[in-house]
Design goal:
Main location: membrane
Transmembrane segments: 12-32, 52-71, 78-97, 103-124, 136-159, 165-188
CATH class: Mainly Alpha
Order of helices and strands: HHHHHHHHH
Membrane topology: Multi-pass membrane protein
Oligomer: single chain
Keywords: Lysosome, Membrane, Transmembrane, Transmembrane helix, Transport
Mean pLDDT: 94
Structural class: mainly alpha
Radius of gyration: 18 Å
Number of helices: 9
GO cellular component, one term: lysosomal membrane
């Protein structure tokens, strides 16, 4: 592996990296701010708000192995990935503009997070040679970390100056951005044979 190999990484790899970075912009900061958000908007006490907020990661902990098994059995990673983004987007729309029971919203977000994570991260190994995988995953995490560093400052600024409604609008924008870049990834991949959204049967057939 040489550093110069990075310039040969495909457009699909960079789209996966950017989509992942944008997707997590709406997740981690939301959980960090979630307890106060649920207290402020829904009038829940601290314990109730904390219980609601913790559902995102608790649900993901339970469902990730289940979705992982399902994706291994079925394939179609891109379809699962897009479904996860859409669920997350829907969750933030409900949180921003309705008073839907917050448990419903965080369940949607937790399932969306679980679907996205279990479907998206394995895609890196499909678009990068095996001898470059360590570098590739390192780059994905670098892009993600850069996004989080800027996001934490921006989220704090929005909460302090504009409030939680505008923060939710920001999270909706991030989710929509991830959906757009994922759609571009899907289009690019489809033009090259659709390797990222093959079913398990199709993958096994290609290995023969």
């Amino acid at each position: 592996m040489k550093i110069s190999d990075v310039k040969h990484f495909s457009a699909s790899f960079w789209l996966i990296s950017v989509t992942t970075a944008i997707y997590y912009l709406q997740l981690m900061p939301f959980v960090a701010q979630g307890q106060v958000f649920f207290e402020t908007k829904y009038g829940r006490n601290a314990d109730q708000a904390d219980n609601i907020n913790s559902m995102v990661y608790l649900l993901a902990t339970i469902t990730m192995p289940i979705f992982g098994l399902a994706i291994d059995k079925v394939g179609k990673n891109m379809s699962w990935m897009l479904s996860g983004i859409i669920l997350s987007l829907g969750s933030h729309v409900l949180l921003a503009f309705t008073y839907t029971e917050p448990y419903i919203c965080v369940i949607m977000l937790g399932i969306g997070y679980s679907l996205y994570t279990t479907a998206a991260w394995p895609l890196v190994s499909r678009v990068v040679p095996q001898h470059n995988l360590g570098t590739a995953y390192g780059l994905v995490n670098t892009v993600l970390s850069l996004g989080q560093a800027a996001d934490n400052y921006l989220v704090g600024y929005i909460v302090d100056t504009m409030g939680y409604l505008i923060l939710e609008v920001f999270f909706i924008t991030c989710s929509a951005g991830a959906l757009i870049t994922a759609a571009v990834l899907y289009t690019v991949d489809s033009s090259r044979g659709g390797g990222l959204n093959l079913s398990r049967k199709e993958r096994l057939k290609n290995l023969r």
